[in-house]
Recover the amino acids of this structure.
RNA sequence: GCGGGUGUAGCUCAGUGGUAGAGCGUCACGUUGCCAACGUGAAUGUCGUGAGUUCGAAUCUCAUCACCCGCUCCA
């Protein structure tokens, strides 16, 4: 990390306005609404020219540090890591085995009065008839949440009262779920929470997975899903990786790719999007070593986010409480989130990356579902035993990471013309440097272009010859460009240029032939 | 999904029933010679969208979409 990027502590989240950050993202071409000219679409965002560079830099830094140059593990050995790139659409059996189909597929019903939400198949009702001596019949609806027995018990007094003095008391149509009731029945249905009648909405599907159809025929047989996480691609190819890559436990498989979740409420700019990109590691270990590897990944992932510029009080590591753990993690070594204090979550935090001990839940589930079972256990040569490896999963959001970088970089500064600058870590900055001829004549543009052509072979740099130098500096401040090199009349005499530092506004002169070395030193190649 | 708010040029906003505007930014030319300087000129609008009321709608009504805030949801 350079001195500049760490010069003073991060801007407190509370003083940053999300509206201002969104406005800058739009104005400078970081992030736009998808399909904006048609009014946009809820939960989908596009990256513009600066945004795509920033997000690529984030993903490439991750891939470099995770796959190409991982560190040493808790056992003191270099970590073994390989990458994969799996498809978004997979055999739908994958999602049955993983528990995504079925578990999160139920129609839900909301109460308009008390805002409670229920699964429609848990809401049941039955119409009762009671005939009295004069053959006039009386009917009433008993409704509630749970099994018929529970509902009857809950409505015991009401039933006794209504059936009093009547004969031939019965419910001829039996119990029906809320979804099976007609409009009249739904209107009489009492909310189990607040007791109001007719306040429940129509049942609505909350399908977290996007569905599509593969092939020409659109029927149930051809129904497929857009993956809601990249992890399952890794799990299903685990055995191929083991057979072809000479890896042995402990080792990791990494993947960067799009995932899709049909969120009920996309919110907070790109934070909760329906289409988003994940950077996931599944790290396979011996079951008895889960604890030390969990701690290793928890700590190293936290340090990594610090290393790319999220170093201040706005980043925190939070261990999950037992109650909030997912079904597969209840007995595990732990689950934690690495969280960032976004302006819209402040003073709270929002998740950037989750590190979870998933045990052997996924590998076992796929081994069972595909019918091969224990034959798919991993063979540990050294220990001469077979087992399903446990998994530590560090799963990060590329879009959330990009958003955190944007929020962290946003630095109001009334002392400079732009009023704000983006203090990106140089490694992540979309544009590494700008090259300016002080004026667009007297041989300066030619020198500038020559320097530009040389530097762009290695870094994303820009040349700008238009307008006065102040405007060009101001534009680069909003783009977050850490260095500007200016060619002036002295350059033509002594072969030096000025370097203007984004964060301090200081200038220094260095040799024209030293510029590339300067950038290598500050940014890396 | 519920409740509240917002929506006019790239940005910030003015415009309360009668010709769609300003500042900034952008672009061109000139000038300038290190921090959005100066001069001249130019481009830029489905007034979020669609209906309705009206002789006439950015303006009033309804619906809808998007964004923001609060609930809810987030395996």
């Amino acid at each position: 990390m350079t001195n500049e990027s760490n010069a003073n502590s991060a801007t407190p989240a509370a003083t940053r306005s999300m509206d201002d950050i969104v406005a800058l993202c739009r104005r400078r071409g970081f992030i736009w609404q998808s399909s904006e000219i048609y009014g946009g679409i809820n939960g989908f965002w596009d990256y513009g020219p600066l945004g795509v560079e920033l997000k690529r830099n984030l993903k490439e830094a991750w891939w470099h540090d995770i796959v190409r140059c991982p560190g040493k593990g808790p056992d003191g050995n270099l970590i073994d890591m390989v990458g994969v790139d799996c498809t978004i659409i997979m055999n739908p059996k994958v999602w049955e085995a993983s528990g995504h189909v079925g578990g999160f597929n139920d129609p839900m019903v909301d109460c308009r009065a008390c805002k409670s939400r229920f699964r429609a198949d848990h809401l049941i009702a039955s119409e009762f008839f009671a005939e009295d001596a004069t053959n006039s019949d009386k009917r009433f609806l008993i409704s509630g949440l749970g099994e018929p027995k529970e509902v009857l018990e809950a409505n015991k007094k009401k039933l006794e009262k209504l059936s009093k003095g009547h004969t031939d008391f019965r419910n001829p149509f039996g119990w029906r779920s809320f979804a099976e009731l007609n409009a009249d029945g739904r209107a009489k249905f009492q909310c189990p929470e607040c007791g109001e009648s007719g306040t429940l909405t129509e049942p609505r599907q909350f399908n977290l997975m996007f569905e599509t159809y593969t092939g020409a025929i659109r029927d149930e047989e051809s129904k497929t899903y857009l993956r809601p996480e990249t992890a399952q691609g890794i799990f299903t190819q685990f055995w191929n990786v083991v057979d072809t890559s000479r890896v042995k436990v402990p080792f990791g498989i990494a993947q960067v790719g799009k995932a899709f979740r049909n969120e009920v409420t996309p919110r907070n700019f790109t934070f909760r999007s329906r289409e988003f990109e994940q950077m996931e590691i599944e790290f396979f270990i011996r079951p008895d070593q889960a604890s030390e590897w969990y701690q290793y990944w928890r700590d190293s992932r936290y340090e990594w986010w610090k290393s790319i510029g999220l170093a201040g009080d706005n980043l925190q590591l939070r261990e999950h409480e037992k109650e909030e753990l997912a079904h597969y993690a209840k007995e595990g070594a732990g689950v934690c989130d690495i969280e960032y204090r976004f302006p819209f979550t402040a003073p709270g935090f929002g998740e950037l990356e989750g590190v979870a001990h998933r045990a052997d839940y996924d590998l076992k589930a796929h081994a069972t579902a595909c019918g091969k079972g224990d034959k798919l256990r991993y063979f540990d040569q050294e220990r001469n035993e077979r087992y399903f490896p446990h998994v530590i999963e560090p799963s990060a959001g590329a879009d959330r990471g990009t958003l955190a970088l944007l929020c962290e970089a946003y630095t109001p500064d009334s002392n400079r013309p732009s009023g704000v600058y983006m203090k990106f870590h140089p490694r992540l900055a979309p544009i590494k440097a700008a090259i300016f001829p002080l004026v667009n004549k007297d041989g300066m543009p030619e020198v500038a272009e020559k320097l530009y052509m040389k530097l762009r072979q290695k870094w994303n740099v820009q040349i700008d010859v238009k307008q006065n130098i102040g405007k060009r500096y101001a534009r680069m401040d909003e783009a977050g460009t850490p260095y500007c090199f200016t060619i002036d009349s002295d350059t033509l005499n002594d072969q030096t240029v000025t370097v203007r530092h984004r964060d301090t506004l200081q200038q220094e002169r260095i040799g024209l032939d030293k510029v590339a070395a300067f950038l290598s030193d500050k940014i890396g190649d």
